Backbone:
């Protein structure tokens, strides 16, 4: 019994330690809007972002590449004036056909599909 | 003449014969008319073939005492012809002849003491078959008698002939001529001895008329004719006497054109003539038309040729009296619109032979005085015209004809002209060789100038000219030879009421054709212009003053309409003062000199200018002022109006060299000093061979080439530039201000519809030139960038179509070795991109913070360390027009790698030490190594976990903070003497930092065997950041090895 409980606890621990939610990547494809902030994800792994509050429209959007690993959405922003790459990682909490919610640094961003 | 004498002889012989018969009858038969008349009538048919009528013949004695005379009454010749105006050919009312019979009987001399013929009418008629009604004399017998008549008498003497009231009419149908003469009265004495005739003839007539209606319609009338001849005819051929004729009120028309009207024609002809040789000699003969007379002295002979040697001389002919006598049609043809007056006197000689091939030579002197010439449309009424000329006219060899102008003078208005010279080849080419002087009052030329041009002043001209009439009429400047000088005083010229030229004194020398040569074209006109002061002003545009101007202008053939005019000008001017647009632009040029040329080239216009001056001073309102030392440039251009843009239209080729320039721009506080500039420029490139400038705080030498100028202006290609910028000291920001905005035409309002206009309209950010591709290789010993002095800055600066890139520029400063790559792109005024890739190797962290104070915002904990490290920073963002960052576009990454750093013992450190139970007394605050990676995204800075090993302690720091300087950091104490692993959260802001113990977050991060997926991802991202940012370092060898 003790062994069973130990195995059960170990299994629960393992599963709880590997608490990972997988989202359907294809749901991410498309243009998302959060206030004046826009993000656009394509199936090729490219993405774009712009904020009209800063007088930037889609034609002037900045590009990035992205990957979705479980609930970790990682954006890699290649800088223009440098070889440097700026990574930005978010944790997705909701991804539906109409809603994208992710968090980072204690902030939550909610997007609606456009 | 012989025929006339023959007719006279036959007529006289017939009369004498009749008279002799009558006398004989008187003498031998009867003396009464009843007896004499039948006798005469009986013999008349022996002399005439037509019907005759004779009333009576009687013998006179008392009326003709002391001689007997024979008198015929009412003698008529009647020869009716169809169409004739009268059947009577001739009717003599009374004919009395007195003959000295004794003299004939004694000496065989016929002496007619008198012939009196009165009230006689002759009606001459020639019918359509050319049969004349006067052809009634017995010719055969006349011929025989004619041959024997010479033997009838030794001498014929007619002492007194009187004709009274003789009239005649003449009708010639074949010739369609009609003529009448009325009331002929004549007296003469005639003595004929041995073929010598001496006579004294006086003749007067009434009206004379003549009409011919052939192909040419001629009508002439004379009111009366008076004539006298006093002289003799020797050997029936030599005339020696004086003939006087006077035609009163002569009129003549031909084809309804009046050639003479109310003319009184006179002639007094003292002559010696030989009828056999048809030679005549005149002495002081006078021929007059009204009051105009010509005197003739000389001789002439008419044969197969006409030869003459005749002097002539006119009286003073008043033109306004003579010219009306010229037929109206001729006046209209040759003198229409011309009004001449004055006095002309001609004298000369005509000598030589006239025939089909030869013409006599005319030599004449003409004096014209008190002349007035008014030519309609000329605009100048000439007065005080006088001409003294001599002409030699040789029509056999026209080249020998010459008119010598001894003197000519004329005035118009206040202008006067004098001239001398000659016209050679007078009858053909008319080669002028003239020397003239003129004092011209320019206002007198007003009618010659177009309405839009006004000129006043005086021109004192002296010139010589050689040319032909054709050259002159055609204004063939290539064949006209002329030179002279014009002294102009008080010149005032106004062009279209907007351009004013004036000069107190100006001298112009001209030479035609020019003796100068210009390689670009053939100079035809040469002008040398000197003026103490020449002012030129265009209203509302510019005014300029040229002092001591010395110009030489060469012109091409300006009359050649097949080519555009060419001009070359050598100039040497003491100084030029130029003002433009109400003194907003002004310039003073000292001693400009050189040469300018404009000429047709291919189908375009070529220009050239070789310019030198000692100095130039210019000012453009308050925005620019410039002063230079020597300037020289050699410029060429070819203007093609069909080309697309200005640069291609002009196709310039300019070589410029000037030095000691100083330029002040209102936009720059300090002036621009140009030690020297040497460059050349054409439509494709600008090549700066050498330049030394001081612009504001910066000194530099700029060399290089600018290409694709024409293509750039034509929007076909980028403007390419490749320059080397060498400087001892450069104020980078100040120079950037100079170049700001070149090529940009947008405004904030146009490009920033979303932004509030009132906040951005005044912004004027630096706009990188568009359409250009510049490469600038820099070698700057010391540069001021912001507040930082950098040294030995060498690298490249490129500007490519709106993008400015400072590419891998290496330099050193007190703090470190540096490498900077920066990019600035001005897509539009409210969307400016700025990015940099900055590497500091072996830099003191304190110096780094001093150099880049903003680094403290990004990496606030950096000031907790001291020592040397390598620092890599990449950051970029878009900016608003006021340079405020658009945080949504902000990206950045930084990596700091250091060894043997000291942790500063400040308040924060003390707080951390306290909470993490550091034994400060025993713990050295030196850390072995530091590898920090952080990113900036939008307004957040993420600090990726990094290890700090200090003595017995090891901590991992991570967290993030916002650009509003609120923090959220965590420190995991992963190694310490204590058995527990503590964590510490630090949050809040710098003024109110909060510290709270927390769970150790990264206890497994640097333990590979214990790492989880998240740990791997964190390290992977750190690796991405570190390797990608450090890859930009040009010299990888200087980096700290991992």
Residues:
């Amino acid at each position: 019994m003790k062994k069973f409980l130990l195995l059960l606890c170990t299994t629960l621990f393992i599963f709880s330690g590997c608490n990972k939610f997988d989202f359907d990547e294809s749901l991410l494809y498309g243009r998302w809007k959060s206030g004046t902030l826009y993000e656009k994800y394509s199936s090729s792994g490219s993405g774009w972002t712009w904020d009209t509050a800063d007088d930037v429209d889609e034609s002037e959007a900045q590009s990035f590449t992205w990957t979705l690993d479980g609930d970790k959405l990682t954006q890699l922003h290649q800088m223009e004036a440098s070889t440097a790459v700026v990574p930005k990682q978010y944790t997705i909490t909701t991804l539906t056909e109409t809603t994208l919610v992710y968090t980072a640094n204690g902030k939550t961003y909610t997007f609606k599909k456009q | 003449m012989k025929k006339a004498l023959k007719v006279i002889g036959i007529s006289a012989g017939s009369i004498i014969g009749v008279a002799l018969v009558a006398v004989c009858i008187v003498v031998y038969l009867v003396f009464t008319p009843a007896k004499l008349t039948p006798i005469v009538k009986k013999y008349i048919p022996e002399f005439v073939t037509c019907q005759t009528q004779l009333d009576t013949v009687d013998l006179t004695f008392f009326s003709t005492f002391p001689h007997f005379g024979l008198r015929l009454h009412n003698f008529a010749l009647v020869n009716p012809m169809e169409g004739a105006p009268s059947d009577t050919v001739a009717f003599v009312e009374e004919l009395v002849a007195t003959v000295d019979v004794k003299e004939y009987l004694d000496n065989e001399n016929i002496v007619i003491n008198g012939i009196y013929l009165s009230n006689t009418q002759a009606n001459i008629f020639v019918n359509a078959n050319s049969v004349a009604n006067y052809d009634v004399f017995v010719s055969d017998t006349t011929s025989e008698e004619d041959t024997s008549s010479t033997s009838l008498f030794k001498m014929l003497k007619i002492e007194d002939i009187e004709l009274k009231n003789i009239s005649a009419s003449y009708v010639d149908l074949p010739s369609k001529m009609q003529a009448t003469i009325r009331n002929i009265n004549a007296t003469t004495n005639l003595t004929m001895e041995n073929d010598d005739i001496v006579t004294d003839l006086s003749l007067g007539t009434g009206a004379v008329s003549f009409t011919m209606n052939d192909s040419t319609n001629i009508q002439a009338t004379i009111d009366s004719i008076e004539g006298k001849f006093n002289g003799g005819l020797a050997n029936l051929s030599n005339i020696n006497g004086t003939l006087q004729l006077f035609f009163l009120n002569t009129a003549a028309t031909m084809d309804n054109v009046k050639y003479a009207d109310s003319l009184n024609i006179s002639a007094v002809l003292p002559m010696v003539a030989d009828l056999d040789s048809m030679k005549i000699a005149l002495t002081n003969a006078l021929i007059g038309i009204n009051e105009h007379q010509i005197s003739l002295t000389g001789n002439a002979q008419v044969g197969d040729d006409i030869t003459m040697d005749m002097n002539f001389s006119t009286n003073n002919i008043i033109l306004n009296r003579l010219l009306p006598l010229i037929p109206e049609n001729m006046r209209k043809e040759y003198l229409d619109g011309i009004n001449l007056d004055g006095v002309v006197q001609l004298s000369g000689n005509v000598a030589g032979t006239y025939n089909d091939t030869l013409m006599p030579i005319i030599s004449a002197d003409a004096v014209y005085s008190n002349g007035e010439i008014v030519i309609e449309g000329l605009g100048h009424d000439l007065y005080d015209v006088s001409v003294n000329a001599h002409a030699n006219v040789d029509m056999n060899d026209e080249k020998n004809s010459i008119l010598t102008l001894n003197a000519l003078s004329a005035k118009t208005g206040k202008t006067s002209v004098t001239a001398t010279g000659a016209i050679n080849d007078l009858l053909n080419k008319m080669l002028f060789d003239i020397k003239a002087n003129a004092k011209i009052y320019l206002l007198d030329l007003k009618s010659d100038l177009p309405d839009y041009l006004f000129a006043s002043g005086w021109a004192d001209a002296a010139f010589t000219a050689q040319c032909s009439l054709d050259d002159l009429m055609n204004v063939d400047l290539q064949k006209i030879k002329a030179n002279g000088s014009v002294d102009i005083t008080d010149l005032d010229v106004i062009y279209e009421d907007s351009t004013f030229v004036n000069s107190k004194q100006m001298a112009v020398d001209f030479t035609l054709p020019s003796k100068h040569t210009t390689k670009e074209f053939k100079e035809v006109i040469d002008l040398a212009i000197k003026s103490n002061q020449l002012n030129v002003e265009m209203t509302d545009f510019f005014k300029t003053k040229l002092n001591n101007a010395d110009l030489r202008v060469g012109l091409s053939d300006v009359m050649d309409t097949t080519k555009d005019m060419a001009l070359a000008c050598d100039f040497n001017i003491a100084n030029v003062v130029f003002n433009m647009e109400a003194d907003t632009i002004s310039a003073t040029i000292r001693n400009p000199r050189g040469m300018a040329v404009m000429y047709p080239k291919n189908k375009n216009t070529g220009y050239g200018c070789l310019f030198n001056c000692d100095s130039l001073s210019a000012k453009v309102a308050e925005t620019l002022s410039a002063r230079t030392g020597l300037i020289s440039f050699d410029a060429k251009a070819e203007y093609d109006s069909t080309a697309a843009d200005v640069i291609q239209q002009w196709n310039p080729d300019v070589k410029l060299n000037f030095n000691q320039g100083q330029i002040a721009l209102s936009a720059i506080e300090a002036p621009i000093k140009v030690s020297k500039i040497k460059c050349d420029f054409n439509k494709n490139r600008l090549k700066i061979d050498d330049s030394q400038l001081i612009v504001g705080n910066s000194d530099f030498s700029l060399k290089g080439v600018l290409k694709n100028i024409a293509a750039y202006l034509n929007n076909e290609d980028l403007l390419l530039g490749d320059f080397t910028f060498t400087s001892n000291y450069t104020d980078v920001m100040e120079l950037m201000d100079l170049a700001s905005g070149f090529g940009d035409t947008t405004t904030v309002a146009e490009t920033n519809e979303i932004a509030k206009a009132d906040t951005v309209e005044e912004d004027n950010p630096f706009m990188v030139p568009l359409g250009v591709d510049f490469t600038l290789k820099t070698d700057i010993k010391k540069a001021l960038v912001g507040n930082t002095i950098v040294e030995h800055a060498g690298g490249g600066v490129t500007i490519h179509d709106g993008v400015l890139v400072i590419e891998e520029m290496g330099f050193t400063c007190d703090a470190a070795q540096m490498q900077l790559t920066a990019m600035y792109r001005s897509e539009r005024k409210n969307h400016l991109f700025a990015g940099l890739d900055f590497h500091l190797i072996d830099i003191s962290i304190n110096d780094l913070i001093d150099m880049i104070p903003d680094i403290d915002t990004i990496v606030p904990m950096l000031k907790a360390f001291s020592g040397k490290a390598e620092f890599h920073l990449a950051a970029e963002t878009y900016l608003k027009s006021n340079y405020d960052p658009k945080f949504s576009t902000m990206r950045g990454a930084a990596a700091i790698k250091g060894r043997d750093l000291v942790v500063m013992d400040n308040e924060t450190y003390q707080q951390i030490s306290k909470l993490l139970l550091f034994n400060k007394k025993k713990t050295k605050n030196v850390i072995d190594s530091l590898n920090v990676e952080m990113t900036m995204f939008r307004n957040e800075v993420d600090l990726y976990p990094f290890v700090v090993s200090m003595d017995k302690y090891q901590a991992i720091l991570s967290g993030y903070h916002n650009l509003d300087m609120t923090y959220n950091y965590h420190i995991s104490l992963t190694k310490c003497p204590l058995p527990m692993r503590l964590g510490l959260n630090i949050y809040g802001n710098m003024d109110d930092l909060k510290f709270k113990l927390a769970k150790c977050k990264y206890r497994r991060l640097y333990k590979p065997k214990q790492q989880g997926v998240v740990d791997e991802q964190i390290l992977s991202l750190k690796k991405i950041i570190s390797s990608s940012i450090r890859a930009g370092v040009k010299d990888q060898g200087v980096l700290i090895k991992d």
Remarks:
- Chain A has one domain: 20-113.
- The beta strands of chain A are 30-34, 37-41, 46-51, 62-69, 72-78, 85-95, 99-104, 107-113.
- The CA atoms of residues 5 and 11 of chain A lie 10 Å apart.
- Chain A touches chain B at residues 17, 37, 49-56, 60, 62, 69, 72, 74, 76-77, 79-89, 105-106 (CB under 8 Å).
